[in-house]
Batch of 3 targets.
Target 1
Amino acid sequence: MRNLLTRDLAVELGKLRLKKHREEKRRFVIEGERLVADAWRAGARVSIAVVEHERAERYKALLEEMEAAGIPVLETTPKLFEKIAETREPQGIALVAYLPVLDARAALASVPEGYPAAVLWGVSDPGNFGTMIRTTDWFGAKGLLFSSGSADPFNAKVVRGSMGSLFRVRLGEITTVDELHALAEESGRELVATVAEDGTEVGEWKASGREILVFGGEAHGLPDELLESIPRRIRIAGGSAESLNLGVSHGILIHALTAVRSENV
């Protein structure tokens, strides 16, 4: 017989929707069948699992795996589950997981040799952030850096947008421009600013496999302090549209530089 989720605990878990509570408790909520399964298979550090009574049979095999590993599983009603969930139509299963350490050095080291790395600087849109985590995973880069002014990677929209890739990509946070330059020098990599104009067109870029592509937010791009400190710049030639979506730009550049690297091996 499983224990029941109490109302008080449901309210406390619901507070994890806010960044300040996630940071205080060092935990975040993973919601939905696919994300829960991806997180568990990827080895996320799970505190507890919560499931609606009537959906427990649907998730039986997964929940039994967790219980065998010593993870407490709490059952609840749909009404109480809604206090935890952020989706409009909850799937009745969620995990509470511990926040991973956002070590920038470890994240950069996880990018395989010869692959371009990337850093998101002031990327505040959670949808773009989630997409870029997913793209990083797709191309096998394994690690992604971001500045402290970017969206919280454990925001529910980022988690959903990553489509499970959040649990397979090592993330690292950088707080200052100087820290970024020091990390690049230490790793033997070269910072490359991504720009809309006045840069080398991607088709003419001579890839080294040592690039750290620096992406700014869609609204303001890279700050002057950072842009002026990076002499090498890359751009994507465009047509009549005013701009290219940031997530799309990231995908194009990572693919292009990875493809060139493969051809040169």
Target 2
Amino acid sequence: MAEKLNLKKLAFIGGGAMGEAIIKGITRAGLMDPAAIFVGAHRQERADYLHDTYGVTALIDNAEVVKNAEMVVLAIKPQMVDSALDKTLAAAVDRNAVILSIMGSVTIEKIANIFKGHAVIRTMPNTPLAVGAGMTAIAPGDNVPDAAVQTALKIFGCCGETLLIQEKDIEAVTAVSGCGPGYVYVLIDALADAGVMAGLPRAAAIKLAAQTFAGSGKMVLETGQHPAVLRDMVTSPGGTTIAGIKALENGAVRGAMYNAVQAVLDRSEALKKH
């Protein structure tokens, strides 16, 4: 079992899919007593579900949720910032609490202006968090205690992989890993379609494609080898794999990935202007 978090109370503002995924990881790893995890839910039905499923303390009153919490996780959608994070909530947060945000496109500066005097950690997790295979980039703001950074690493480490970065790199992280699952699902679907065209049953083709992506990613992470080295290990001279790779290169798959990342960066920049 992982070492428990050094927190007496952890608060979540937002108990949606991403918040639930993090709570699931924490409780499954035994990092905290579930009753010491307080969650602010939008509806009573959702609060009841979170309590019944994970044993957490789920309430409708966000001000009560954050009271005396040593860390407050902002697990709401970015467009809810102005309505959900009001002065009443900010005033209810303990003066020594660290604010941890999973909100995309909301800067540390903006969060610090709402929760004045609080240390802020900004993160960018992705949706595979829900199955314990997420990728979370963690960007601590100024004056964040090292203990709080280590707590953030533990929280997200029980839901997948973590990476410490600077906030200036968050947009690039979003374009690669934040949006990345969407790209991968397209590729899995395409590979499965190709398998069906080759004569495989649909379910078999999807399983073969999905596990191939999952296993290949695991090999990169666990061996530490460059993807090109691992690619060469399965590419015999004049063989079948190099024929397939040549077709991918002719189809500009590599260039499409460059374009996808740039499209996200361009769109993110455009959204900041609105």
Target 3
Amino acid sequence: MDLLTQGLLGSAMAQSGAQKKEVRLATGIGFFSGLLADADILIQSSNDPLLNIEFHRHFTHSIFFVPFGALIAALLLWPFVRKRLAFRRIYLFAFLGYLFSGVLDAFTSYGTHILWPLDESRIAFNIISVVDPVFTTILLFAVLYAFIKHTKIAARIGLMLAVLYLTFGWTQLQRAETVAQTLASERGHVIENLLVKPTLANLVLWRSIYQVDGRLYVDAIRVGLFSEPHVYEGESIEKFVLERDMAGLSETSVLAKDISRFMNFSAGLVAVQPEHPNVLIDVRYSNLPTTVAPLWAIEMDRENPEEHATYVLFRDASKETREKFLSLLFGRVDE
């Protein structure tokens, strides 16, 4: 998730294991340790544009890396707090702060190598957005109260409420998946692959992507708290097939390997942008849940297969897009 939430979770975890006189120090140690897993964002290469997305949320987010990540955090912080805490206590708070960094990210839709090196796949449970203000606020109030009152009870209550919120997200996901399956059945489609994920900053509006006969269908599903679910039918696009769409491309070429890396990152849900045949998009993400307009993609130079693909971003912060999204979120769109 976002850095603030990662840090707050780390603080709450560390506070929950602290004695009264240690709570404030544990807050800082836990916050720093909760952020440290995301240091993999610094792994970049000017010669390989895909290296960053390949290694972000990689080994530093694995549950098997937690003891080592906590040790790094403790060693970095030891010079600053060694006169106030024994190293074993610093390590304990760093361990608690680092413990769920990867797990929390796995609850989002981005994908995390939480079981590396035993499993190289990106795991995503899709029960919360990468940014969720409600979840963040729960942790923020718990951490602040614990810090001010020197009490770990507030942190533990905050953690329990956060777990309840994630459980609610899982329930919402099940409801949205049921609607998506019903929609496909009404269309006469037999789903081959289904992904349902929350849209930005909420657990009400969901994006559904499913595959049928080599085509990807995108729809928005509003799962209200006190109303029946509603579907906003969206667009569809032909799924990318390497042998067909890049006929003649050598499997050993740099471009072919980059395409494979991008497909792995995107859970295989990729397509060629119709108006730009050299652009391969990640269909999972869009500014609006009913469209296939991408948030990111790779640009392929078919004439130079030994050159790396270029990673490109498509940000649409226009007023029109924001208003359309809010209309879908609050159920103000009639279709």
